[in-house]
Structure formats: structure tokens, C-alpha cells
Amino acid sequence: MQSAISQPHIQLASELDAARALRDCLVQERECLIRAEIATLEELATRKTALVEEMNALAASRALALAALGQTVNAAGMAAWLDTQAQGERDAWRELLALAEEGRELNRVNGLLIHGHIGRNGAALQVLRGGGQTAVYGRNGQQAVASSGRAIVAG
């Protein structure tokens, strides 16, 4: 019987589980960003980080297993190993690659949503600070300072 480390196919199921969980986490993150449920994002970020760490560990384990089988640790080595496996393993690998691409796209969209929130928050802060005034210069060449900002009273 071969050890688990020399059988990369054992890890593909775990990698798929982690990739699906990461995709689901990214979808939840997108939904929270759309609804502006910012408080939930910290929990999702912690979960997302743990899933990425798990996926990195599984990928490293797969690389060790490929090397133990005498394969190169790259796409060509994985393809060579898959050529010796049942269709189910090849399907699992294709699904894993598709999930990785889907995750990249979800992450890109979430980044755009975050950028939008940051922009809106920055604009709101400018309004509160009285920003956005255009510079007006008097006859003496000095900038005329007009105070049209909003007063903020604490208390």
C-alpha cells in the first residue's frame, strides 16, 4: 500500500472541498458588500484567510506527492500524472482549475466593490470637512478663504 503522500488524487477531493468553501465565502463577501453589511466582512476575511492557507498547504502536499512519484512539480507533471488516472481524477482537476478561475473573478469583483465603498466614504468625508471648494484668488494674488464647510458639534 502506498502512503497518502505518494497519492496526489487523495488530496484532490480535499482541495475541491476547500476551493468550493472559498468560492462560497467570496460569494457571501460580495453579497455583504452589495448590501453594505460591513460588520460581517471581518468574520468573512478571517474565514477566507484560513481557507487560502488550507489550500496552499494542500497544494504543497500535492507538489510533494508529485515529486515522490517522479513527476515534475508543474502543470506538465500534473498532466502526466492525470494521464495515468481515472476520468474522475481528471474531472476533479478540471473542476479545481475552474473553481480557481471563478475565485479570481469573484475576488476581482469584490475588490471593485470595496474600492467603490472607499470612494463613497472618502467623498462623504470631504463633504463633512467642507472640501471640494475651488480656489479663488483675490486681486492681490492671494487665495481667498471662504468658510462654507459644515460645522460639526460634538456632544
What does this structure look like?
By secondary structure, the protein is mostly helical. It has one domain: Methane Monooxygenase Hydroxylase, Chain G, domain 1 (Up-down Bundle). 71% of the residues lie in helices and 3% in strands. It is built from 4 helices and 2 strands. Strands 1-2 form a two-stranded antiparallel sheet. 15% of the residues are buried. InterPro entries: FlgN-like, FlgN-like_sf. Keywords: Bacterial flagellum biogenesis, Cell projection, Cilium, Flagellum. Required for the efficient initiation of filament assembly. This is Flagellar protein FlgN.
Short description:
With about 160 residues, this protein is mainly alpha-helical. The protein is built from 4 helices and 2 strands; from the N terminus they run ααααββ. The protein has one domain (about 5-145): FlgN-like (Methane Monooxygenase Hydroxylase, Chain G, domain 1), CATH 1.20.58.
Q: How would you describe this structure in keywords?
A:
155 residues, elongated, cell projection, FlgN-like_sf, mainly alpha, two-stranded antiparallel ribbon, flagellum, Flagellar protein FlgN, Methane Monooxygenase Hydroxylase, Chain G, domain 1, single chain
